[in-house]
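So, could you explain this one?
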Amino acid sequence: MATLKDQHPLAVLLQVAGLARSTFFYHQVRLHAPDPHAALKADIAQLFEANRGRYGHRRIHDQLGKKGWRVAKKTVLKLMNQLGLVCRVRRKKPYSSYRGQAGEVAPNLLERDFTAQGPNQKWVTDVSEFAVAGHKVYLSPVMDLFDRQIISYTAGVSPNLELTNTSLREALKALDPGQSPLIHSDQGFQYQHVSWRRLIAGAGGVQSMSRKGNCLDNAVIESFFGHLKQEFFAHCEFESVEAFTTELEDYIAWFNHERVHSYLEGLSPVQYRAQALAA
């Protein structure tokens, strides 16, 4: 109407549109008024870009609170929608390493108790598969349940024993004298193998396994894979396996040092561990 009123009488336009004169002038003034959310939008966009589009409105809301903003989550969601800032949709493609009982199956000692009172008490691990540049790449991380930190990982084009054993060997190097973690996995053939069990026993650790076909028994590492695929892998194209592994290293460093977790009181794993050890 603002455009047409130069060509037609305003009274006629209002009558056709069924709009009150006062309503028209109210919205016309609003069009030229400064955006009351301009500063907030700028901070939202900065946080979204700084975290590479991996944060949804809830984590953006948490970060805004740390910067001194007092704003509702629904307002953050509305403004993100206005700015076209959409967190990537999670895509899941589960990988199963179960091949029947190829070795010894350990009891489920973790029993879905995903809490730990200190570092290196409880570790969880699994293998996930990624399709990269016409190849399959497998990731084997070891996570500490105390702070959800990825303390070691290996990536390779085969889900073999060396993939999982290498990640465990690297994780065991983080142990201080006297530490003997419970190490939980699914019943994949790699974890039933004698070489895996010897690594655990040699470090004085204890082996635990999920029940057959029950991913909830290892829910925390499954959640990590989901976030990784949502925040890092989804909608990305990698020209080579080498490019994928380089970016993966960067993501895991970000996950450990910068990514905030609601479970960790809004801190990153490294920040949470440092704060806990300093207390």
In short: Confidence is low (pLDDT under 50) at residues 89-93.
